[in-house]
Amino acid sequence: MEIGLTTPRDPIRIVQKKESICLVQPKTGIDVSKSMYEFSNEFLTSLSDVDGFILKSRSPSCGVKDVKIYPSEEKGGGSSKGKGFFAAVAQEKFPYLAIEDEGRLKDFKIREHFLTKIFILSEFREINKRKSLKELVDFHSRNKLLFMAYSQKYLKILGNVLGNNDKKSKEEVFKLYEEGLQGLLARSPRYTSNINVLMKAMGFFSDKLSHNEKGFILDTIEKYRTGNIPFSVPLYVIKSNVVRFNEERLLDQSFFNPYPQELVEMRDSGKLVH
């Protein structure tokens, strides 16, 4: 409706025309590429306080990755894959935000990264508004293990920004921290990084464990390494011991709860994952 099509409307598709990608309605021959681009630009420019988008899977306007691009307006023929028009503009305008389609979010790893990114960016955005260095230091401390799992390189960069040895202004510190945070959250953690953080957390209370308890935890982590159990299992085992021994340095770490438990789903593609 926003781009001038009637409701209900006939299907639209993305078509490759020489060097250009066009959004057309095959039945009528209407090309809505310009209208869709202008609407997307205007709508996205009007937004404020946005942390991410959930878009429609495989939609010629909103699909994030698996949108069919046809060689012509006619039926049949092969197709390639690409982005929907709106999704492409959203990713161009907000390259560091969490942007996914609802189909890809059925994959647990993708969904976990998406939700983690949403809540981290949202919390930082609110702190950034207040420009409170104390809140920023607290934010960094609570997320230290999570950031370590994402990227030790960027964790070090963020730590150096907070150290502020160059005596930069508060505004510059927040700007540099935001840039580092965007780089850190660009991809999901590797399983090897998760294991490193699990082992580091275990180090806080390992001297309080019996030989059998330590062996059980290490065996659980090994089963995760070999792909026999999901990450949630060793994570829960470590977390339970953090609570058991009241390890205050770890109790508030977001690594154990990166997003609200209400958003945790029991099943993912038929497999128990959480």
UniProtKB/TrEMBL annotation:
InterPro entries annotated for this entry?
Answer: 2-thiour_desulf, DUF1722
Give the DUF1722 domain ranges. 144-260
Q: What is this protein called?
A: DUF1722 domain-containing protein
Source species: bioreactor metagenome
Q: What is the lineage of its organism?
A: unclassified sequences, metagenomes, ecological metagenomes
